[in-house]
């Protein structure tokens, strides 16, 4: 069982932004997708979430085409945290998180849904924001509340199958401490049997928390594998235009990437 893109091409307007490419994320692992700006990372995530239909190829959730899943059943298995989530209503942070329980709505379930929402706030270090109006929160606080909403959505495993968490640059607006908190939560989700795909820009965060890394460039997957196998000086120079030193430390789960300056363009 997995969430899998098979030979997908994603177009926006008249231009192809990703593909053809194939990618799979499995329960129990964190897959980090990295690449330069415009590589197609967010477009791939939009295809995997069902937000964008594929021009060719298809996305399969546990062996079944994603668009064939009833929306409520799909939402019980697949949750998405976008880069930005706009909300103009005067909801409190707790009320925003409770929205994540909508796919599980049932008569008499209000108390249990509130308990899940509060647990999700605890997991994202936002419990102290529960009664605050969402519109008054900082960008980083909003991002963590939205993560709590998605975690609340996926809190209860389905009777059959697994849970899949898609994160689009979840650390972009966070301070250093909360960057690690969010990715620690992602690792815990995978340890509990879920699958995580996260788009990241920070290669060191990807090396520390991901089981596998997929590198995208110009809409294609140019390399995929463990952080140690993928994050090499040559690949980083060719893909990101950056000279780096890559070192191993016994106290870290993955390699450490040290920037050394922009790479010289080829003659």
UniProtKB/TrEMBL annotation:
Alphabetized, the UniProt keywords read:
ATP-binding, Nucleotide-binding, Translocase, Transport
The record's SMART domains line, in alphabetical order, gives: AAA
Which residues are listed as membrane-spanning? none
* Segments forming domain ABC transporter: 3-243
Q: Can you name one GO molecular function term for this protein? A: ATP binding
Summarizing the function annotation, the protein's role is: Part of the ABC transporter complex HmuTUV involved in hemin import. Responsible for energy coupling to the transport system.
This one is known as Heme ABC transporter ATP-binding protein
Tell me what organism the protein belongs to. Answer: Corallococcus praedator
Starting at the broadest rank, the lineage of the source organism is: Bacteria, Pseudomonadati, Myxococcota, Myxococcia, Myxococcales
